Amino acid sequence: MTEMEVEASARAEDDEFIQKQIELEQQAQLDEALKIRARKWQQKRVKKFKQESKGRLVSMQNSDMPVEQLRKIVKDHGDMSSRKFRNDKRIYLGALK
């Protein structure tokens, strides 16, 4: 082998080594970016779906209606299957709950 061939092969090896180093650095940067995105996504999911109370109190207690008013509702709308009460059925049944 001549000196020129040795230098050319040395340059080719150096170029390959440099190219591999660049690819490894780029892969490391992509991995780091992916880890950051995954961490941010996880934090958003935890924040959105955490089970702690958020200071909102909802009272599910219904106030008792007078017996006379309940009797009147049942008497007036006892048969809720008619077409007349089709749209109001939910409202009336909700009032009775």
DSSP summary, beta strand count: 0
Low-confidence stretches: none
Please count the helical segments: 3
Instruction: State the helical fraction.
Output: 55-70%
Calculate Rg over CA atoms.
Answer: 37 Å
Characterize the main sheet. Answer: none
Question: What spatial form do the alpha-carbon principal axes imply?
Answer: rod-shaped
**Class based on secondary structure composition and strand pairing:** mainly alpha
- Roughly how many Å apart are the termini? 98 Å
Strand % is under 5%
Rounded average pLDDT: 79
* Order of secondary-structure elements: HHH
Element layout with pairings:
Layout: H1 3-49, H2 67-76, H3 89-96
Could you explain how this protein is built, in words?
- The longest helix has 47 residues, at 3-49.
- This protein has helices spanning 3-49, 67-76, 89-96.
- By secondary structure, it is mainly alpha-helical.
- It is built from three helices and no strands.
- The chain starts with a helix and ends with a helix.
Task: Write a concise keyword list for the protein shown above.
97 residues, mainly alpha, rod-shaped
Question: Brief overview, please?
Answer:
With 97 residues, the protein is mostly helical. Helices cover 67% and strands 0% of the residues.
